[in-house]
Amino acid sequence: MLKIAFHPIYVLPLPEGHRFPMEKYELVPQQLLHEGTCTPQNFFKPEYPDEADILAVHEKEYVDALKNLTLTYRQARKIGLPLSSRLVEREFIITSGTIKAAEFALQYGIAMNIAGGTHHAYTNQGEGFCMFNDQAVAARWLQRNQLAQKILIVDLDVHQGNGTAEIFHNDPSVFTFSMHGKNNYPFKKEQSDLDIELEDNIGDEEYLEILKKNLPQLIEAEQPDFIFYLSGVDILSTDKLGKLGCTEAGCKERDRFVLQLCHDHKIPVEVSMGGGYSPQIKNIIDAHANTFRLAQEIFF
């Protein structure tokens, strides 16, 4: 059965006009239930995580500053969201959802988080709407519990996974692959194990050609026993923070290719949603929903 992390706290009110589309976290599960792709049994409600799991990746001083809301103005500004105790609680819950989804993926082959993909969070700071790096924490959780040894993180959000790259720098047990916009945030990029920078306005054909050339080779070379996939839909041409030129059909084909590879190689995969900032919420919901539809089609 496809298991999907969703908690009501994923959806918090933000000031009117804020560019972060919080409502998508509520609308995606509603759409999946409405169309019959999922039933209520597909969804699970993550609990608050063991803080030791967070501290396996993030520095205690930073975690304490988040919990106590004592970040400096500069630190809070880099995150880009109005800090509150509820927002910090939300980040803990999202990270817990990815840990639990990773555990479910070992059982079912795939599991997903309606939120997550917070790849701009470093060991000691947050930025770009990210406070904890959910997939990094879950990767360490798998390793600490001897459930995986070699992990591949496939980050196809339009923005480089700079926090993920920093966390696993010089760590051969986790291979970080980021395929992202060359001229997009973050403007000071970190070094992943493999970075592929894409020029502005790249379309479906070229995007998919690059992905299909590189990802199978990576899996063959690295032989991972677990994959984390960050399936951001901000590669769409409609995305106001994206700069690429992919269509919804191209984005869906991207997801199909990644998930089919995981299935064919029998490598468990956890999928976190990542970014999506098109002005029309329908574009965001349709593109994200395709990822869940494909998971059901390919794995179940």
Automatic annotation (TrEMBL):
<dbReference type="Pfam" id="PF00850">
    <property type="entry name" value="Hist_deacetyl"/>
</dbReference>
<feature type="domain" description="Histone deacetylase">
    <location>
        <begin position="18"/>
        <end position="285"/>
    </location>
</feature>
<dbReference type="InterPro" id="IPR044150">
    <property type="entry name" value="HDAC_classIV"/>
</dbReference>
<keyword id="KW-0378">Hydrolase</keyword>
<dbReference type="InterPro" id="IPR037138">
    <property type="entry name" value="His_deacetylse_dom_sf"/>
</dbReference>
<comment type="similarity">
    <text>Belongs to the histone deacetylase family.</text>
</comment>
<dbReference type="InterPro" id="IPR023696">
    <property type="entry name" value="Ureohydrolase_dom_sf"/>
</dbReference>
<protein>
    <submittedName>
        <fullName>Histone deacetylase</fullName>
    </submittedName>
</protein>
<dbReference type="InterPro" id="IPR023801">
    <property type="entry name" value="His_deacetylse_dom"/>
</dbReference>
<dbReference type="InterPro" id="IPR000286">
    <property type="entry name" value="HDACs"/>
</dbReference>
